[in-house]
Amino acid sequence: MTFEKIHKRAVSEWEALQSSNKPRLLVGAGTCGSAAGALDVLKAINEELARQSIEAIVIQVGCMGLCFAEKDGTFTNTERHIQRVRKAIEPIGNSKPDWWIICQLAMIMGAQNFDFEHPSEMMDEIAMLTPSYGGVTYERLEECGLQWPCPTKDHPGTSILHVGRFVCGLGRFMPLQYRPPAELPDKEYPLILTTGRSLYHYHTGTMTRKVTGLNTIEPEGVVEINPSDASSLKIKDGDKVKVISRRGDVIVKARLTEKSPPKVVYMTFHFAESAANILTNTALDPVAKIPEFKVCAVRIERVKGK
Q1: Domain presence at residue 17
Q2: Considering just the CA atoms, what is the radius of gyration of the chain in Å?
Q3: pLDDT, tens digit, for every residue of 164-204?
């Protein structure tokens, strides 16, 4: 969805909430820190709430979800490998499994057949309704897991999905004419900023930034800059700098490296203290509507006295 559509949908949802007693369940994965533009969406919602004099309240109803170490269930990775996940510790306090919370809410709202007592029962229902999971049971997953498609209970699973030919047919290649990014460097913003991930942290670091070893290796965000650009800006390795785009600015340490080509700087988006996505551009491509989060124009200034 485009930002305009998200904004319109958010306002519509809040207006509906105002005129009904229906509850809302918000489930997320640190999107306000990792998803560029998410802060703008929240700001738009808050502005609409303020305009209508509505007070937003976060309510914890009775219990909270489990952390990863308390969960029991399955995990399916991008290799199609369905594996058992077993809890390492008993749930702390009044915390409950996500599936239990959702099922309770469903039954309170009048839904039928949500009276599950264990994740294995849900897997049985998935197997009944999804042909590629038809032969998957918790008993079979106990040893080493299975790879879907696994259509029957005597099927060994599919270790390689595409053999000889692609299951869904050949892909189609379509030639495209190159179009430059929506925002190119200019006199005011002479550098290109691109963003990515670190080997040591994941998204907003909700788990990885709690690991002492990973924080020892990479305790904070940096902006990687080519030594030739740093020299012209009188920036030394480790200096605090301000990275500025047309949308905002962040303060971060400079790391001089030849890995960044001249006129290109690089940041990760794991660190709330130097949130790179404050800077990035939400311009959309005309077909897929994917934002240009990976390229925007910036300038860098040395922070005096830092």
Answers
A1: yes
A2: 24
A3: 888 788 878 888 888 899 899 999 999 999 999 999 988 88
